[in-house]
Amino acid sequence: MKRADRRFRSHSRRLVIVLVALAILVPGGYFAARDWAWPAYKDWREARLEHMANDFLAAKDYDNALITARRALRGSRQKPEYWKIAAAASKAMGQPDAIFYQERVVKLDDTLENRIELIRLALSHEDYHDAIDAIEGAGPAAKQSVDFHQLAAEVYGRVGRTVPARLHLYSLLSLRPDDKPAQLELAALELSDDTTRTNATVREKLRQLSQDPELRVRALALLLQDAVTGHDRAKAVEYAEQLNASKKLGDDQKVLVLAGLALGAPDRATEYQRRLEDAFRNDPGGVVALARYFENSGSQTDARQWLQSLPRNMQVDLKVQEAIASDYLAWQDWPRLDQAVSSEQWKDRDFMRHAFAAYSARQSGRTAEAGSEWRLAVIQAGNDVGHASELLRLLGQWGWQAEQYDVVWKLFALMPRNQEVTGQLIAWERAQGHTANLNRIFAKLVEFSGDDLTVKNNFAYTSLLLDANLSKAFELARSNYDADPKNPYYVTTEALALYKQDKSDEALAMLEKLDAPQLSSPERTLLHALFLAAAGRADRAADLLGGVKTKALLPEERQLAQNAEDKIAALEREHGQDLRLVALSHRGDIDRRKGWLAVMPEKVQATATDDMKTSDSLFAIGDIDGLGTQLRNQTWKQHEYLRMALVAYVARHRGNDAEARSYWGTALGAAAGDQERLDQLAALASHWQWEAERMDVLTRLFEIDASDPATLTQLLQYYRSAGRTAELVSVLSAYLSAHPDDEARRSVLAYYRMLSGLDVTRAYVAAHDAYEAAPDDGSRRLVYAFALWKQHRSAEAWKLLQASPDGGRDLVPVALLRAAVLSDLDRHDDAVQALNEFDRAHALPEESTLASVLASRLKSNRAVSQL
User: Fold this and answer.
1) Which parts of the chain register pLDDT below 50?
2) Which of 165, 266, 614, 816 is close enough to 838 for a disulfide, judged by CB 3.0 to 4.6 Å?
3) CA-to-CA distance for 374 and 385, rounded, in angstroms?
4) Under 8 Å CB-to-CB from 371, ≥6 apart: which residues?
5) Contact 571, 533 (CB under 8 A)
């Protein structure tokens, strides 16, 4: 292969030299190079890259094969050979990107073979949306393919769509009638669909298939499960005996036999259960299967005794620990569940340990701990679709609505093209009136469904409501309208886009192209009224607005209705407002030093509009009601962030703190990224003595320039006192991005990361490196001791704690850390004494949660020791 490759490169070099020489020597060399030599060189280069990529692929050097294929694709994206190499390399490395590359192969070369490979790849990565797209887009040749129907049936079966799964199995069996495994899969689907248990034919078919030695165990297991579910005692015992007589039963099948005997022959089931308990004592899979059976069957007392009697090697097995915890949860045995989940981490299943701990804490009334544990469960689930789906199923069983919402968002981020998840999330956010979240959803969908006009329209409409991504929204609104000018939804969005561009007359003309029934929807009626008011037609606008029921509208739509109402009122009192401004401007008793403009820079004061000056006068004389009314009727364009800040001020003076925080957040959003504007908001917050809001501004300024240690110190002190650990992590991360050599701050960040469970592996390394760099630094010593304890290296942590650190106590609560370490070292009394010294009053929420967990564990340990 190497010799051939050298020959290929040698011939290629000669070709390039000849082409270049000809380009120079031949008359009209420039045109020869442009029209002949350069295309020839490109063809040579692409052929060489393809040859290299295939060589790397053959040598199983998949990284280089993929890199080379990508280089080839830069030159030409229309050759399926390059996409095939990329797909093959990604597939060999187990990367989901293989699906994307294979999709491009199908787009360029839509053969049945390529499409089947796409379905197979999507199925292997559980990407059912792409798999179904590939199935539904297949041509007529697929109808005669056994492999296609087999894969299609499996895909539809996994997503619970039994009807198309059965249809593909019918097609498969029409091509290969003697395919008994396919017959069994079809019978299994028909059995699951027969909820009334009236289909005797399918059960007879399964009995016949059970005569085949290769299919016997699966067929009998299906029949037995059906009998148990239907409480058919006679059939349950019959199939249990037949299945038990079969060879090489799995653990689940043995437990299924137990379920059948328990239903129809309880006395025999008792003896059989004892035999299983003896046989499974050293079999983790068997313990898990039997524990699952115990959740809803058998004596809880006997089950607990058996589970607690398992040998040590079983007790520490992670799958067994999870199964036991699940039993305790089902039995509502909260003390034992707490003890089960307070053990060592469950590795890749640790998300489930935290979920169980959260449920137990909530059921026991420990609300704060429940919230903390649930956040850790979501964090530990990470970007694993399967783990997130498991959490969602648990939440459905528990009825935790708010937490379901968080997990559905996580699933949407992982599977944005899953229509079930997307539909559920859109319905939720629409019902809650969360326009910004709807916009986020549609923005994500636009990435994956760029040709879907409905998705683009939804994104454009919500962007217009939010005044976000306006240039993109304008572009999409216009392109959708041009594509389908009779679609009422596209007309509505384009009309709103025109209004947002200060083209009210055009917006009104656009909307009035629709007929009366189309204009009657609440959203279009309010927009019609808004456009009429903008055009100065107050009477007609008022008539329309009076019939709009705003309760079901989005908040921003309700705000548009309010804008229309205010505009109508403003038209009626416009002349009076002008007179009021004149009167205020000429009042001699207004102390301008009490106005809000006095704390603004000269640039703002010099460019202040009449509306701004009016609000300053009202502010100075303390007319809060007048100020609120005046602010509602205006927009200050480039100074809108200041108007929002003043609206927040009015809301707080009226006692509506939540509304004040909301408006202040809007002001921050309008000023985001602009240091001058943020400085002005900081000046207002300082003048009004709004410390929390001033810190919000400092955080935004710190995001722009994270190099100021003084600002960092202020933020750390504030967020520490406020117990906001996530913000501590955020500002320290930003600071260290500008000061990567600050090991002292890196150690502090490591502690907060470990405390909140964020990027803990990296935090361990940072804690170790910071300590090694300065082992006499008390703060770094304590952080490293905490890291050792988190890694279950308590003996090493204790040695550091005994070194009597001379600093760091303001960062790491020593008493709490000593209690945690002593507890792990089984020094119960010393741990209790240390925990009693812990100062909860100045602790972060995660530290308080850790103290509660330790207290519960120490209490449980004392109870166990007294048994």
Assistant:
1) 1-9, 30-33, 36-38, 41, 575-576, 578-579, 582-584, 586-588, 864, 866-867
2) 816
3) 17
4) 358
5) yes
